[in-house]
What we know:
alpha+beta
Amino acid sequence: MENSSDSSQIVEGVICYCGQFTTLKTSWTEANPGRRFRGCKFYGRQDACNFFSWLDPPAHPRYKSVINGLLRKKSVADKKEVVVGWKFRFYKIGFWLLTCFVVIRIIF
Ligand SMILES: [Zn+2]
């Protein structure tokens, strides 16, 4: 499944059609934000069985709306944070260049 968490853990006791323990992941799609599911650990591979089973019941529409809204706000905030980080580095480099220039002017 796309948009699932990177961290997955083996779920003992549930075996897929490949004969392997399934992994537990969390969906972050618009339709199922934060909903956990079990899946074949080889999901996406050509020879995988692609076993899939929801662990959590479907979420209430209000819950989905709130979570998706928060995820969108977080995404915007993360992008702003990256821009602020670059501006800060730029100013820091500018500060050191100016300091070096002033020191060189004082010495020579
Ligand atoms: Zn499998």
